[in-house]
What does this fold into?
Amino acid sequence: MSVCLAPCPVVFDLDGTLIDSAPDIHACVNAVLRENGIAPLGLDRVRSFIGGGVELLWSRVIAATGIDPAAQRDLVASFMTRYHRATGLTRLYPGVPEALGVLADRGYPMGICTNKPMGPTQAVLDHVGIAHLFGAVIGGDSMPQKKPDPAPLRAAFGALGADPAAPRAIFVGDSEFDATCAAAVPVPFLLFSRGYRRSRLEDLTRRATFDDFAALPGLVESVAMA
It folds into this structure.
């Protein structure tokens, strides 16, 4: 792979990578379940369903609760009315603002590639105060494809000035979807290990793993100069 030097685009997943949004998603899911007379699910259970977008989230909720799959469209619509404004329980992971600030100061163009729909994505980026740091944001409804298809990630890199067909860039994420997407582009993948992944670390292809955002700028520099 070609050497990647600053300015080298760095694109991030959102849920489970920069933000812990599981409490808000959990609250929205359970509000819909209660509305339909169904027992609520625990936070850890709902957290394990996050990553593939809203439709996959609800496919997993339906499988876990025994709801008629034919109800999915209505359940998703009810969920989205709440999800668009659900930011009150979402928090940045410790060290995220500082790490992003260092990368910005060093000249790295930054973007977001998430399976979260654009409406909730923009709302939560504004809520946590980091929207201004990203030159490109690709949401789960920005394109026909979602991660792990590489098309959204290629689009994010392209919007930041990289060659979409052969980007010299870095992707940072937390899940199986992110690891598979990065490998499909392909670009180096940095894995945040405290997110929402379901697989074992050793089963995910990655360039490096970190559990503290203080380590991220150094990892980006080392990958960029490899």
User: Anything to note?
Assistant: Residues 174 and 192 are 5 Å apart (CA to CA). The domain at 22-83 is CATH 1.10.150.240 (DNA polymerase; domain 1).
